[in-house]
Amino acid sequence: MKHEMVAMILAGGQGTRLGKLTKETAKPAVPFGGKYRIIDFTLSNCANSNVLDVGVVTQYQPLELNEHIGNGASWGLSRRNSSAKILQPFSSQDGEKWFRGTANAIYQNISYIDSKNPDYVLILSGDHIYKMDYEAMLEYHKENEASLTVAVIDVPLEEASRFGIMETDTLGRVIQFHEKPEEPKGTLASMGVYIFDWPKLRELLVHDQATDRAMEDFGKNVIPAYIANGERVFAYGFEGYWKDVGTIESLWEANMEFLDLNHTLKIRDSHWPIYTKVTISPPQYITRNATVKHAMIGDGCYIDGLVEHSVISQDVKVGKNSTVSQSIVMTGASIGKDVQVEYAIIGESAQIADGSKVIGTPESIEVIGYHEIVGAKKYETK
């Protein structure tokens, strides 16, 4: 069955700014909010927006991400007339293998998109925390008879140099685009969410591949080319919570914001749920000696110390007289007795031995990597 729009989620980035947390896994697979992984938000947006054909383009350390997504069943994308497809690099006749950039990743997956025969292709990032109705954006795209629509959000001027910045006319048509300008003249930032007319984008990418192969990246190459060619490029204004969690500081900050019951993301809104792959764990157990203040505690946790203003994922152990404050503890981590954890991110299955201290500051979050051991010996809560 033909679907009007196919989504392509770019989830192959190495995520080097997350340091230890992406040493063994792709950035979109990094845990978030005690229960989710980062990519869950984009996948859930697709499901809730009735975008039923989703390709997930992976490359760097994809094993955990691939296992998490599976066939898309957790997001309702495995039913009849819907699909979630993992798309990884492969060797082709023209010598292509690794994706050279975002646009090149789409070029290398033309056969998948063609198999769906869409009118439009929705390009998404797999590492942003937000809720967005892509159907509403598509209607805006149609109303403006656009060749390309770029979702934008207003950002503080001091942060604008981190983003692609749009200049628009009074009708919302993009007249200038500056990719990460050193001295930004505006604050209208690209969210990395694009809707293209597929036949036109396909033609551009195929022609480029046959000539100078300059169209490697959407921000650096494709969008400027569209504007220079006089294509109808429009900015779609987004109002709401949106966070690029590409740094340790932004990931920690987004998790701390997630603790707010009045968070604008509205995680408890049943009309726009965030889905995830459910892992079965026993109920949490909080001992009579434990104290929990303003925290999220996942299933399977054993808490025998103080936990305050922290996000604790599934199957975490916190030993007697230990304190976890202003921190994120990811799935399966073990924290021993008499431990202090403050302003830190503890990676999956890490082990913090008795009497250890893992202490950062709001300006410098301490990070413990996946499976990393802190202290002289492994600890196991009894």
TrEMBL record:
<keyword id="KW-0320">Glycogen biosynthesis</keyword>
<dbReference type="InterPro" id="IPR011832">
    <property type="entry name" value="GlgDAde_trans"/>
</dbReference>
<keyword id="KW-0321">Glycogen metabolism</keyword>
<feature type="binding site">
    <location>
        <position position="164"/>
    </location>
    <ligand>
        <name>alpha-D-glucose 1-phosphate</name>
    </ligand>
</feature>
<dbReference type="InterPro" id="IPR029044">
    <property type="entry name" value="Nucleotide-diphossugar_trans"/>
</dbReference>
<dbReference type="Pfam" id="PF24894">
    <property type="entry name" value="Hexapep_GlmU"/>
</dbReference>
<keyword id="KW-0547">Nucleotide-binding</keyword>
<dbReference type="InterPro" id="IPR005835">
    <property type="entry name" value="NTP_transferase_dom"/>
</dbReference>
<comment type="subunit">
    <text>Homotetramer.</text>
</comment>
<keyword id="KW-0808">Transferase</keyword>
<dbReference type="InterPro" id="IPR011004">
    <property type="entry name" value="Trimer_LpxA-like_sf"/>
</dbReference>
<feature type="domain" description="Nucleotidyl transferase">
    <location>
        <begin position="7"/>
        <end position="258"/>
    </location>
</feature>
<dbReference type="GO" id="GO:0005978">
    <property type="term" value="P:glycogen biosynthetic process"/>
</dbReference>
<dbReference type="GO" id="GO:0008878">
    <property type="term" value="F:glucose-1-phosphate adenylyltransferase activity"/>
</dbReference>
<comment type="pathway">
    <text>Glycan biosynthesis; glycogen biosynthesis.</text>
</comment>
<keyword id="KW-0119">Carbohydrate metabolism</keyword>
<keyword id="KW-0067">ATP-binding</keyword>
<feature type="domain" description="Glucose-1-phosphate adenylyltransferase/Bifunctional protein GlmU-like C-terminal hexapeptide">
    <location>
        <begin position="288"/>
        <end position="358"/>
    </location>
</feature>
<dbReference type="InterPro" id="IPR056818">
    <property type="entry name" value="GlmU/GlgC-like_hexapep"/>
</dbReference>
<feature type="site" description="Could play a key role in the communication between the regulatory and the substrate sites">
    <location>
        <position position="59"/>
    </location>
</feature>
<dbReference type="InterPro" id="IPR011831">
    <property type="entry name" value="ADP-Glc_PPase"/>
</dbReference>
<keyword id="KW-0548">Nucleotidyltransferase</keyword>
<dbReference type="GO" id="GO:0005524">
    <property type="term" value="F:ATP binding"/>
</dbReference>
<dbReference type="InterPro" id="IPR023049">
    <property type="entry name" value="GlgC_bac"/>
</dbReference>
<feature type="binding site">
    <location>
        <begin position="179"/>
        <end position="180"/>
    </location>
    <ligand>
        <name>alpha-D-glucose 1-phosphate</name>
    </ligand>
</feature>
<feature type="site" description="Could play a key role in the communication between the regulatory and the substrate sites">
    <location>
        <position position="98"/>
    </location>
</feature>
<dbReference type="InterPro" id="IPR005836">
    <property type="entry name" value="ADP_Glu_pyroP_CS"/>
</dbReference>
<feature type="binding site">
    <location>
        <position position="190"/>
    </location>
    <ligand>
        <name>alpha-D-glucose 1-phosphate</name>
    </ligand>
</feature>
<dbReference type="Pfam" id="PF00483">
    <property type="entry name" value="NTP_transferase"/>
</dbReference>
<comment type="function">
    <text>Involved in the biosynthesis of ADP-glucose, a building block required for the elongation reactions to produce glycogen. Catalyzes the reaction between ATP and alpha-D-glucose 1-phosphate (G1P) to produce pyrophosphate and ADP-Glc.</text>
</comment>
<comment type="similarity">
    <text>Belongs to the bacterial/plant glucose-1-phosphate adenylyltransferase family.</text>
</comment>
<protein>
    <recommendedName>
        <fullName>Glucose-1-phosphate adenylyltransferase</fullName>
        <ecNumber>2.7.7.27</ecNumber>
    </recommendedName>
</protein>
